[in-house]
Design a protein that fits this description.
This protein has helices at 2-19, 23-60, 63-78, 87-100, 104-119, 130-141, 148-156, 165-187, 212-215, 224-252, 258-284, 289-306, 308-324, 326-340, 348-353, 358-372, 377-388, 392-403, 411-434. It contains 19 helices and no strands.
């Protein structure tokens, strides 16, 4: 599908460039965009390596284990048809926990394994079960606590407050996840999506190699000295934060609202607090922090380099399209429609491409932030969209393709509804938070 979209973008750029007599500008834009894509990717290498390294510290500190155990009671209620001891339950929990922490590379293997285990409970091979549809809907809308990829991109584009979208992303993903669950539970009852599933009488034995505990890294914590040091540094950090808040209150005067003061304080302190918080958690839990950061940094380096071809392809197409005047024409024509819902028309390309291609949307988000600024309202909206929605068609193709599902039933509809909810919420919460 992305192949057809990319070809259409190139052809449309040439066509519009010919009509507007701007083919020279289109040709120049293709070269400049290719250079810019490589420069962007190189600038992203260090930031991506650092953040994935920090995520590795959280993983070694047992945070994945903590989130997984917190999710387990909820999962029992959401998936009553899946036995508690079945490996599918463990893999789904691990997938969602990894997604929450922004560990996409860890989430994908868990997700594929989960869908394969769910298929063992499927009485109708080739047709998605209710549990599969719900799992895929949640997977594409999963609550994101740390959108590390977007933070890294914003930092590489010169944002002064790259982590400011954490709060808006959490709100948007929370809404999209609720919509995903509600739509999956409601649509599965529709006769249109009926699968005629038989009652599964399988009573699977517990697989010791696939239990939740097998995949969770247990940490007994650091030494008493490490724990005391971490707690002491945490106390100093809280004192510094309180002092900064008091200074900001004095500088702002009595006319400033509490919300504006809190927003300003979070915007300035959120990223430093996140970094030092991760380090202190690792210290308290006895993680070899430097080794974990280096280990994750190697993976981040590889990830950043792997996206260069995708960035080049999509940024060249978007650059040519912008130079031809086609994007401006589309934005102007659709502005009355997008204005009705308060959506800046400039964010429309991002909203349309995000469910189709993760790398493509990543490139579009980068291009939009380069044009309008990473810290602008438009830049914050596309950043939140990127962090709060998923590449729906890719996820469904990979997961269902792994088990040969041809009839997806209501899974696609639920995922797209969740995407729409996430995007609309992203717009609303960004207007509220960034004003």
């Amino acid at each position: 599908m992305l192949n057809g979209i990319w070809v259409a973008l190139i052809v449309l750029a040439i066509f519009c460039g010919a009509l507007s007599n701007s083919l020279n500008a289109v040709s120049t834009a293709s070269i400049e965009a290719a250079k810019g894509a490589v420069e962007l990717a190189i600038g992203l290498v260090g930031v991506m390596a650092f953040w994935i390294g920090l995520m590795r510290v959280l993983e070694h500190a047992g945070m994945l284990s903590l989130i997984a155990r917190l999710l387990k009671p909820i999962m029992k209620r959401l998936f009553p048809d899946v036995p508690e001891t079945h490996p599918a339950m463990s893999m789904m929990i691990l997938n969602m926990a990894a997604n929450m922490l922004g560990l996409a590379n860890a989430a994908t293997p868990f997700g594929i394994k989960a869908i394969m285990e769910l298929n063992k409970l499927n009485p109708r091979p080739g047709t998605a079960t209710n549990a599969m549809a719900l799992f895929l809907a949640i997977n594409t809308s999963s609550l994101a606590l740390l959108p590390t990829g977007v933070i890294a991109l914003r930092a590489s584009l010169g944002s002064t407050q790259p982590a400011s979208i954490i709060i808006t992303t959490i709100v948007a993903t929370a809404c999209s996840t609720v919509i995903a669950i509600l739509s999956a539970k409601l649509l599965c009852r529709s006769s249109f999506f009926a699968a005629g599933e038989a009652t599964v009488s399988i009573t699977p034995e517990k697989s010791e190699s696939d239990t939740l505990e097998e995949h969770l890294e247990e940490k007994q914590g650091g030494s008493p000295t490490e724990k005391r040091l971490a707690l002491g540094l945490s106390l100093l950090l809280l004192i510094a934060l309180a002092y900064a808040g008091f200074q900001q209150y004095q500088a702002a005067g009595t006319d400033a609202s509490i919300f504006s003061l809190l927003r300003e304080l979070l915007s300035q302190w959120l990223l430093p607090l996140l970094i030092v918080g991760i380090v202190l958690i690792g210290l308290y839990r006895g993680v070899k922090i430097y080794d974990a950061v280096v280990e994750g940094g190697k993976e981040g380096f590889d990830v950043a380099l792997r996206i260069i071809p995708f960035l080049v392809a999509i940024l060249v197409a978007i650059g040519m399209l912008r130079a031809s005047g086609a994007i401006d024409l589309m934005v102007d024509n659709l502005r009355p429609l997008t204005t009705l819902i308060g959506m800046p028309a400039e964010t429309l390309p991002m909203a349309l491409l995000r469910p189709l291609s993760g790398s493509g949307a990543y490139g579009v988000a980068a291009e939009i932030m380069q044009t309008y600024g990473a810290d602008s309202l438009i830049g914050n909206i596309v950043s939140t969209m990127q962090g709060s929605t998923e590449t729906t068609f890719y996820v469904l193709a990979v997961y269902f393709g792994a088990i040969g599902i041809s009839r997806v039933r209501h899974a696609l509809g639920c995922a797209l509804l969740a995407d729409l909810a996430g995007m609309l919420t992203a717009i609303g919460v960004c207007y509220w938070f960034f004003g």
